[in-house]
Amino acid sequence: MNSCPAYDHLLVFPHLQVQNANAISSPLTHGFPSMTAFLGLMWALQRKAHDVGLDVQFKAVGTVCHQHRELATEGGFVKSFHLTRNPVNKDGGSAAIVEEGRIHLQLSLLLAAQSSRWTQDPAARDADMTTLSGLLAGMRIAGGSVMPPTQPWRSRYKPWALDLTGTQADRQTVFAKARMRLLPGFTLVGRDDLLAQRMQQQIDAGNNANRLDAWLSLARINWRWSTDPTTDKSSWYHDRTGNGWAVPIPVGYGALGELQAAGSVANSRDNDTPFRFVESLYSVGQWISPHHLHNAENLLWYADSQPDAGLYRCRNDHMQTLGDDALDEDAWDAPLEFDTTTY
């Protein structure tokens, strides 16, 4: 699936206070939680909604981050996570510490939903939104705890929904009016195209580059000393100009072997579900202010599972909905795959 699934409502749970969320989003990245964590939250919330009798299906998820504070040391070239002290062993010795990265977040959660009941009875949607808000308050978001709102924010930040059942032009108009309610903040969108561009730039420069080289190049600020031929003056410049706030992100998982029959792998969590060993897939994302977006699909992420190809990743249609015809979708069936134990 290379396009966002159809939906008719956009649910917004604004300014959720999340404490101690997981800041280690993959073996190679840290900071804001992976979008795979929010997809898992979406599926868990849908199961809880069905258990209480709600007729709703969630199709995609998006986030807008308003504030964040990673629990790490500040200053210097090397940062360290704030770690908790484990209890001592039975013999009184110090127990081993498993590094855990944590981050405090204030974010708005957006869910693309489909419900025939809401289309026929808008009042039912408002009642169901209250139920969903209560369910969400008792769940974990990327491993973090959802804190109750405090006064005076309790009445200000109530969940709200957009009816997106009209034509494409109508949907754009409705979203354009509502996107200002998500400010100030930034949303994460997919920019697989930046990875392709950087790899091509390195190849054109005569480097024997691959996707990993391009990804590592985009993950840092590359400074170079250059001389302007017109003025014969030399200065430092970097290659971040024009790429915006681009960041390396995990986008899912790639298979390391064949699918194993349910219960055939010892110590697996679920003996009723087929098992497969996987590794992380990586790509590039970009943080954008919501007022720059024209469609709700620009910020929504959805699952794209291809078991035959061994790919289980999440996708975002930001570049496609902007009309970028230069993207080669076939080239991104496997955006960046390598054994994380090697690097």
How are the secondary structure elements laid out?
Layout lengths: L8 E14 L12 H17 L5 E14 L31 E13 L1 H5 L1 H16 L2 E2 L2 E4 L5 H4 L3 E4 L4 H11 L7 E5 L1 H13 L6 H8 L4 E6 L4 E6 L6 E11 L22 E11 L12 E6 L4 E6 L1 H4 L22
Antiparallel strand pairs: 1-3, 1-5, 1-6, 2-3, 2-7, 4-5, 7-11, 8-9, 10-11, 10-13, 12-13
Helix pairs in contact: 6-7
Query: Which descriptor suits the 3D outline?
Result: globular
| Structure summary, number of beta strands | 13
Structural class: alpha+beta
Return the string of H and E elements.
EHEEHHEEHEHEHHEEEEEEH
Helix content: 10-25%
Low-confidence stretches are 323-343
Termini separation comes to 31 Å
Provide mean pLDDT, rounded: 84
What integer value in Å does the Rg equal? 22 Å
Continuous helix count: 8
Roughly what fraction of the amino acids lie in strands?
25-35%
Oligomer: single chain
Q: What's the main sheet like?
A: 11 strands, antiparallel
